[in-house]
TrEMBL record:
Family per similarity comment: Belongs to the CinA family.
Protein name per its UniProtKB record: CinA-like protein
Residues annotated as domain MoaB/Mog: 4-170
Superkingdom, natural source: Bacteria
Pfam short name (any one): MoCF_biosynth
Length: 392
């Protein structure tokens, strides 16, 4: 079964609140073999909500909406669902009594506006909310279903686990499972990795895709079927082939920083850092790794430049800085990152140097330092330089 998710609320479309509900729902639905095809955010506007729900209701066998079930004037999901499905709203006394009981249990007086929460579209199955005051409901037409849940994450999760999943398993008899395996890469590019596994990405089963963040890459492999053992075997076979082809770029599931620190720890080696950027990207990346691994980090010197320098000078400063911290902290390796002056195009050459016993390697990462991802790109480049040196 395929599904669409609709998250409703102006706070989501403005970006003041992050839509974590849809991510959780997608992961949870995968456990019963439901694949999410589309996620839509829509503001608190009756016309926009109605349009989005109506379109989803026409094309998808399962539509899940979150948010907009409160008692205020901007809680419009009930009315929008009623219009989109052409089912007028009906008042349910039992739902209203349940809401009133919840308020009594809180020791609070219910407002008249809470009455609107007891309305659901005609023919819909009301679902009382034992964790809050906003009831849910299900429209079930056999071949398709639409379910509406509160936007409060704890209430939504409770109702999904106690109502949605049993509905899908028992009434839709969903028995398949959807498994996902991730393989993490660095030291490559999305294009290069994609070319190496292009035939696997074009295959219909298992499904293989790549996503990128700050020059680190996730290869996701997903497979679905009714035999969990066979699905697991299919996933593992595909993963083994991906890992074989991309072996030189593989890193730990915990991330590149943990991967590097673990390799250093296994070799009884250590690293010291010289940061020429105030944001200290390498240090911040390493200190975010697992606490038991950070012992491989001997120390850090943060020394932003007083004035801009050209690329050659930046590289010389990086070489000197890497050697200095290695000697001062008596580390196996010294790593330094020093920026050159900003170019006419707004980009900066950041010179990265790794030194060790009989070792000196340099790399330049060109970044736009004003970018939100700039420090991540620098940290990844520096850590990957260490990774490749350790695994050479």
């Amino acid at each position: 079964m395929q599904a669409e998710l609709i998250a409703i609320g102006t706070e989501l479309t403005l970006g003041t609140t992050v839509d974590t509900n849809s991510a959780w729902l997608a992961r949870t639905l995968a456990t019963v073999g439901v694949e999410v095809q589309r996620v839509t955010l829509v503001a608190d506007d009756i016309g926009a909500i109605t349009e989005v729900i109506a379109a989803a209701w026409q094309r998808s066998p399962l539509v899940l909406c979150t948010g907009g079930l409160g008692p205020t004037a901007d809680d419009l999901t009930r009315e929008a669902v009623a219009q989109a499905t052409q089912r007028p709203l009906e008042f349910h006394q039992d739902l209203f009594d349940g809401i009133a009981a919840r308020f009594r249990s809180f020791g609070r007086t219910m407002s008249e506006s809470n009455r609107q929460q007891a309305f659901v579209p005609m023919g819909a199955r009301p679902v009382p909310n034992a964790r809050g005051t906003a009831p849910s409901f299900i429209i079930d037409e056999g071949s398709r279903a639409l379910m509406v849940f509160p936007g409060v994450p704890s209430e939504m999760k409770f109702l999904v686990e106690t109502e949605l999943l049993p509905f899908l398993r028992n009434e839709r008899e969903l028995k398949s499972v959807l498994l996902v395996r991730s393989i993490w890469l660095s030291g490559t590019s999305e294009a290069e990795a994609g070319e190496i596994i292009a035939d696997l990405m074009q295959a219909s089963y298992p499904t293989v895709g790549i996503s990128a963040k700050a020059a680190q890459y996730e290869v996701r492999i997903s497979a679905q079927g009714e035999d969990p053992a066979q699905v697991e075997a299919d996933i593992e076979a595909c993963a083994a082939e991906v890992e074989r082809r991309l072996e030189r770029f593989l890193m730990d599931r915990d991330g590149l920083a943990a991967h590097v620190l673990r390799r250093l720890t296994n070799r009884s080696a250590s690293v010291a850092i010289y940061e020429g950027l105030r944001g200290a990207p390498i240090y911040n990346a390493l200190r975010s790794a697992k606490p038991d691994l950070v012992q491989a980090l001997r120390g850090v010197t943060i020394h932003p430049l007083d004035q801009a320098v050209d690329r050659d000078a930046a590289e010389s400063l990086a070489i000197a800085g890497a050697n200095t911290v290695r000697n001062n902290w008596q580390a196996s390796y010294g790593i330094a990152a020093v920026p050159a002056q900003v170019g006419a195009d707004g980009f900066t050459d950041v010179c990265i140097v790794l030194v060790g016993k009989d070792l000196q390697r340099s790399f330049t990462r060109r970044v736009e330092l004003k970018s939100d991802d700039a420090l991540g790109f620098i940290a990844t480049a520096a850590l990957d330089l260490i990774r490749r040196s350790l695994e050479a």
